[in-house]
Write a structure and sequence with these properties.
single chain; Rossmann fold; 2 domains; 14 helices; 13 strands; 44% helix; cell shape; UDP-N-acetylglucosamine--N-acetylmuramyl-(pentapeptide) pyrophosphoryl-undecaprenol N-acetylglucosamine transferase
């Protein structure tokens, strides 16, 4: 038997797939199913080590991306997409998996198109409150649709849609307590703010944080995930911004947080500043108060809707990009951190919002299809 996963474009698509695969491997071992092969089809493996570690076989299919703004690349990609879809049809016809699991994103279109053409069962998962174009289309023929936000249910067939929450990898679900400060080089007894700009980093957040440092470092320590492309420019600016600042070492810029660093950071953080992607569900699982800064021009304003859904639950405050400034960010951080009752309310609300077990629920549905196809009884 064979299972094919597809998705791509960002960590928000890739990491939930890995979370599902982890749970599926556990269930397969538990049921004694040793002959099931797992595949991942996308334009890039994103993290090759995780693909290999989780027993996935990578199938590369380059596809086009239709951007919601003018770009010469759109003209080129008009031709790339049908070519990719045709290649996917041939690959899936030869492979013929028992089920295809789509996580959304432009890179999932070829495999989902092929699955529909070949009448292969499809399960999709949507992380956002407003689905992207590929998932919205795939939801029309998918056997099952799993969603993270109840708001997204309106875009899919009611009878085939279930609110599962967002799949989260085991490696980052449990915050590290002992030794976390030492791992990150932080001081004892000084509150910690964790800033997450998404898998690519976020320049607008980086600029606001750098500008806010002189107002914050006398009271707080800042762990800041700036993105691989931005770390050099951040380091160059620090010599000017933090010149003669006696607390300069309290600022910890990192290009990317490894799993261990993320567990350590979530274990010591008192407040998280983040985008409004799938990271929201990790923050909720950690039970940490948050300030959410959604991307303004995301598809269907899904990040803004994600952010306000989370805020209405009492877990966070929102700063929209049009209002973001170093002064406002510093002021909001201080306001929340200095209000103990507010912090506790946010922690409790995050605990209620968290919906753990999404990966296992989806993996269980995959198992149901595999058993149905094999004719075995459970």
């Amino acid at each position: 038997m064979k299972v094919l996963f597809t998705g791509g474009g960002s960590g928000g698509h890739f990491y939930p797939i890995i979370a599902i695969v982890q749970k599926l491997n556990i269930l397969l071992d538990r049921e004694g199913l040793k002959d099931v092969r797992l595949y991942y089809m996308s334009d890039t493996p994103y993290d090759e080590s995780l693909v290999t570690k989780n027993k996935l076989e990578f199938i590369k299919v380059n596809t086009g991306k239709m951007r919601q703004y003018f770009s010469v690349k759109n003209i080129i990609d008009v031709f790339k997409t049908p070519i990719a879809a045709t290649r996917a049809v041939f690959k899936l016809f030869i492979l013929y998996p028992d089920v295809v699991i789509g996580k959304g994103g432009y890179a999932s279109f070829p495999a989902l198109f092929a699955a529909r053409l070949l009448h292969i069962p499809v399960i999709i998962h949507e992380s956002d409150s407003v689905p992207g174009r590929v998932n919205k289309w795939a939801g029309k023929f998918a056997k099952q649709v799993a969603i993270s936000y109840p708001y997204a249910a309106q875009f899919f067939p009611k009878k085939r849609t279930a609110v599962t929450g967002n799949p989260i990898r085991e490696e980052v679900t449990v915050p590290m307590r002992g030794g976390a400060l030492e791992m990150l080089g932080l001081e004892q007894g000084v509150p910690v703010v964790l800033v997450l700009g998404g898998s690519q980093g976020a320049q607008i957040i980086n600029d606001a944080v750098i500008g806010a440092l002189p107002f914050l470092l006398d009271r707080y320590q800042i762990i800041h995930q700036v993105g691989m492309r931005n770390i050099k420019s951040i380091e160059n600016v620090l010599g000017i911004v933090l010149k003669d600042n006696t607390h300069a070492k309290r600022y910890k810029p990192l290009a990317f947080l490894s799993d261990d660093q993320m567990r350590a950071a979530s274990g010591v953080a008192d407040l998280v500043v983040s985008r409004a992607g799938s990271t929201i569900f990790e923050i909720a699982l950690w039970g940490i108060p948050a300030i959410i800064i959604p991307i303004t021009d995301s598809n269907g304003d899904h990040q803004i809707k994600n952010a306000y859904s989370y805020t209405r639950a009492g877990c966070a405050e929102v700063i929209e990009e049009k209002n973001l400034s170093p002064y406002l960010l510093a002021t909001e951080i201080k306001r929340i951190m200095e209000d103990g009752a507010k912090m506790q309310e946010m922690r409790e609300a995050a605990g209620r919002f968290a919906n753990p077990g999404a990966a296992e629920k989806i993996a269980q549905q995959i198992m149901n299809i595999l058993f149905e196809h094999s004719g075995k009884k459970r």
